[in-house]
UniProtKB/TrEMBL annotation:
InterPro entries per the UniProt record, alphabetical: UPF0473 (IPR009711)
Protein name: Cyclopropane-fatty-acyl-phospholipid synthase
Phylogenetic lineage: Bacteria, Bacillati, Bacillota, Bacilli, Bacillales
Species name: Metabacillus litoralis
Length: 89
């Protein structure tokens, strides 16, 4: 799979087999693993002042995105994205 770019839109399937379009808000590589922060396209395009839900996904060995399964990894990735966002402001 090619490098994922910020702004790229793709479809993910949730646990109920429902498809959702998400947009990449940020991408980062930690310890050799690629991660993305994504939000639902519908929420991003909505002009409201409400916060949008952001999800973190990791790129697996087959080039597919999967959920982060453990709290330790989630906390590490969440902190890294938070630092990235702070640097960009």
């Amino acid at each position: 799979m090619d490098k994922i770019e910020v702004g790229e839109v793709f479809t993910i399937t949730d646990e109920n087999d429902q498809e959702n379009e998400v947009e990449v808000l940020a991408a980062i590589t930690l310890e050799g693993t690629d991660y993305v922060a994504v939000g639902f396209v519908e929420d991003i395009q909505d002009d409201s002042e409400e916060d949008i839900d952001v999800f973190f996904l990791k790129l697996d060995d087959e080039g597919d995105f999967s959920a982060i399964e453990n709290d330790e990894e989630f906390d590490k990735v969440s902190s890294a994205f938070e630092e990235l966002m702070d640097e960009e402001e």
